[in-house]
């Protein structure tokens, strides 16, 4: 069975459900790298900063965060070079997503119990994002500012809800 679409998990429902000793068998998050570019550069080397900010209270899956990171990284490396920026993903996927698998074949009514015990098994993780929370940040030099303002556009497509880029 494939992954459920983002519309199934987009909004916050209930309390955060994190991986713990009680919740086992959670698959690892798809995103593993949170810092890209020249990580050790200080603020004075890269003074210009662009943020991708969420405009909605939503869940962002780890797959969406990884896709946004890759899209933004490709854009910035293409226009600024691989050592002229520092990008950081600012949210972490801690919330566990669950699914109650249902059968839809002939004779399925004899095989599964329907909504009895419908808590679900862990299928993935997501980050719970609030309104106005920064999803990712890109720092560059002042002369590369106009190029980096467009860097959030490819990654804006990858996240499920409305988001905007701010200088």
Approximate shape: elongated
Into which percent range does the helicity of residues fall? 10-25%
What average pLDDT do the residues reach?
Answer: 86
Strand percent estimate: 25-35%
Round the Cα radius of gyration to an integer and report it.
19 Å
The count of strands amounts to: 8
User: Which stretches of 5+ consecutive residues score pLDDT under 50?
Assistant: none
Order of strands, main sheet, comes to 1-4-7-2-8
Output the structural class. alpha+beta
Largest sheet: 5 strands, antiparallel
H/E element string? EEEHEEHEEHHE
- Total helix count? 4
- Quote the distance from N terminus to C terminus: 41 Å
Structure description:
With 167 residues, the chain is α+β, with helices and mostly antiparallel strands. Helices cover 21% and strands 26% of the residues. The chain contains 4 helices and 8 strands, in the order E-E-E-H-E-E-H-E-E-H-H-E. The strands form 2 sheets. The chain has a 5-stranded antiparallel β-sheet with strand order 1-4-7-2-8. Helix 1 (62-80) packs antiparallel against helix 4. The longest helix has 19 residues, at 62-80. It is elongated, with a radius of gyration of 19 Å. The model has no long low-confidence stretch (mean pLDDT 86).
In short:
This protein has helices at residues 62-80, 108-111, 145-149, 152-158; strands at residues 35-37, 48-54, 58-61, 85-89, 95-99, 121-129, 134-140, 163-166. By secondary structure, it is α+β, with helices and mostly antiparallel strands.
Describe the secondary structure blueprint for this structure:
Layout: E1 35-37, E2 48-54, E3 58-61, H1 62-80, E4 85-89, E5 95-99, H2 108-111, E6 121-129, E7 134-140, H3 145-149, H4 152-158, E8 163-166
Antiparallel strand pairs: 1-4, 2-7, 2-8, 3-6, 4-7, 5-6
Helix pairs in contact: 1-4
């Amino acid at each position: 069975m494939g992954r459920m679409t983002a519309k199934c998990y987009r909004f916050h429902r209930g309390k955060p459900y994190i991986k713990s000793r009680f919740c086992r068998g959670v698959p690892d998050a798809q995103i593993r790298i949170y810092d890209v570019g020249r990580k050790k550069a200080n603020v004075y080397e890269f003074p210009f900063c662009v943020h991708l900010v969420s405009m909605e209270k939503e869940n962002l899956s780890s797959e969406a965060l990884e896709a946004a990171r890759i899209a933004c990284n490709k854009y910035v490396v293409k226009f600024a070079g691989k050592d002229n920026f520092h990008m950081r993903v600012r949210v972490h996927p801690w919330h566990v997503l669950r699914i109650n698998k249902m059968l839809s074949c002939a004779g399925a009514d004899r095989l599964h119990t329907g909504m009895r015990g419908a808590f679900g098994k862990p299928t993935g993780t997501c980050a719970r994002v609030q309104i106005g929370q920064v999803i990712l940040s890109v720092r560059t030099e002042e002369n590369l500012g106009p190029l980096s303002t467009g860097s959030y556009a490819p990654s804006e497509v990858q996240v499920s809800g409305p988001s905007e880029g701010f200088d």
